[in-house]
Amino acid sequence: MRRLLNLALRSAPAALAEPVLPVPEPRLHVLMTTDAVGGVWTYSLDLAAALVRRGIRTTLSVLGPPPDESQASRAAAIPGCRVTTMGLPLDWTAFDAAEVREAGNAVGALAWQAGADLVHLHSAALVSDSIPVPVVVVCHSCVATWWEAVEDGPLPDDLAWRRDLVATGLARADALLAPSAAFAEATARAYDLDVRPRVVRNGRDCPASRAASPKPVILTAGRLWDRAKNLAILDRVAASLPVPVFAAGALQGPNGERAAPLHVTTLGRLDEAAMAEQFARRPIFVSLARYEPFGLSVLEAAQAGCPLVLSDIPTFRELWGGVARFVGCDDEADLHRVIIDLLANPERARELGTAARERAGAYSLDALGDGIVEVYRTLLPMQSGEAAA
């Protein structure tokens, strides 16, 4: 199995150099856990598509709520990608530690049964001794870093045991990754890591959509129910803006948390094509997140040329410094002023959108695929004396 992995990784650059059909015959099999709740699902499908172009097939193992019809349809369109729904809770919605350990053991059993060469986890809490192959953990988010950014005081007991499971998993994983340097630093601080996770930034290749004239409207998107997204501030500011404010995303989460905006027009959870239509009108895109390990919706807006108004947090400064307007997470007056300024100066808004699109070019799906394949390569290096393929 190790020899097959080495051959697959060795062939990856050639597959990249000639991105033509048919794709290379898959010789490496990665089991990747995911959830269908938010950005992790988008990341997982995009990465699965990038990997198959490099001769790597993927089994996506879904924890938490199953994919809806639109999500399942998109997954089915990816060659070399199989989706299994495990019927087990996410680590942040599980009733107790035993449920999380059961999920980790189930991942190990599935990896063994499927003959996976490597396991790619979306949560360190799932690391288990039952996993028979090297384990990559991508630190997409966790309760400890979320609490640090959103709340005050010590971590409550119901989150402390979840943090402890993550800490144990981080220590046992073969490789740790993070989608931004800011979040790598936050993770290292929260868990007192000697070495920060390696940074492999997220990437997207958003679908093309019909051209549309810019509209003087405001748009936000994401898990609206999550207090970390800070929708309440934008909702209050929306009451005094001269243009409509739209919000795309779920209003209720799997943990029962809900958002109930009064002044923002909610669009519900939109599929990729519908979001592309929203972005094609190049609205002013606002994200006031208090906590954001990366922010795929911001990237999608930038790729469409939308001017960005973002909360002044380390992740957004790292990714979008110099091409976005920044406001304090709780500064309603400044948010109102910045939006009014962009509405009154459409040429300035257009320039910001163009700058954001240019910056977004650095966060491509190819860059993500290259970075992940390089990590896989380091986990299973070529054996000394092995003959060249």
Helix-strand blueprint:
Layout: H1 2-17, E1 28-35, H2 39-52, E2 56-63, H3 69-76, E3 81-85, H4 97-114, E4 118-121, E5 135-138, H5 143-150, H6 157-172, E6 175-178, H7 181-190, E7 198-199, E8 218-221, H8 231-238, E9 245-248, E10 265-268, H9 272-280, E11 284-287, H10 296-303, E12 308-311, H11 314-320, E13 325-327, H12 332-344, H13 346-360, H14 365-379
Parallel strand pairs: 1-2, 1-4, 2-3, 4-5, 5-6, 6-7, 8-9, 8-11, 9-10, 11-12, 12-13
General description of the model:
With 389 residues, this protein is of the alpha/beta class. The protein has 2 domains: 2-203 and 365-379, Glycogen Phosphorylase B (Rossmann fold, 3-Layer(aba) Sandwich); 218-360, Glycogen Phosphorylase B (Rossmann fold). It is built from 14 helices and 13 strands. The model is unreliable at 1-23 and 382-389 (pLDDT under 50).
Write a short abstract of this structure:
It contains 14 helices and 13 strands. With 389 residues, it is an alpha/beta fold.
Which features characterize this protein?
disordered N terminus, 389 residues, single chain, 14 helices, Rossmann fold, disordered C terminus, six-stranded parallel β-sheet, 2 domains, seven-stranded parallel β-sheet
